[in-house]
Amino acid sequence: MDSRLNIAVDCTFICEPVYSKKGELFAVELLSRFTTDSFKMPINTERFLHQLNAKMKAELLYEQLFAVATHQQWFIDYQIILSINIDFDMAQAVLYDKVIISLLESMPFIRLEVMESFPNLSDGPKNTLLSKLAERYTLWLDDFGSGNSHLAAAASGFFECVKVDKQFYWQWAESVTFDNLVTRLRDHCQSVIVEGVETRQQFIQLANIGVDAMQGYLFNALPLNDAKRFPVSIETNFSRKT
């Protein structure tokens, strides 16, 4: 694809696994990785996406969904959720682009991750766009604690799952504040996922305070084409291991 900067870009779809506290593969998050077509230099994903206009973002979302569709049987067979991040422009596409709507309706295992930076997220039901999304799709709230909204967003009732931002986790992990937050979040959604989990000890600690699932460098990411290689369960008795 080409950006507005007229740079030819290669796009690869990567999956980051999310494992439950019982060690079961709960979900994978689909991420896009960009490199320059000519020199294969990595491109900062956030900055690149910021350069895309609404039409380009819709095209990217279509490409993501089309790629997932070729692997959908694996997700169905093993009852694995796949989450995809959407911003304001992509939200318009999932509501009004007939092709994208059709693809999403054909793959009910997909969850749409709404980032905390989504406009007026804490307005809850007063946010018309968010309300329309919640009526049609199953939503997750991503990067909670990154500073752009507060508990009202999670308490809106719109989100099946809340993902706690890794920076927030790293800063507050050892505090009562973090434990209390997890408890409060679980009052408003079905599942709480913590991002940024890098060690077995962190996995154990989070499981012990009631976190439902974990994501981070403790678990290896894979290209979408290799998603079926993810272990559907892992050993969780880490306490005597290094």
UniProtKB/TrEMBL annotation:
It comes from Yersinia massiliensis. This is Diguanylate phosphodiesterase. Pfam families: EAL (PF00563). GO terms for molecular function: cyclic-guanylate-specific phosphodiesterase activity. Gene3D superfamilies: EAL domain. It comes from the Bacteria. SMART domains: EAL (SM00052). Residues 1-236 form the EAL domain. InterPro entries: Cyclic-di-GMP_PDE-like, EAL_dom, EAL_sf.
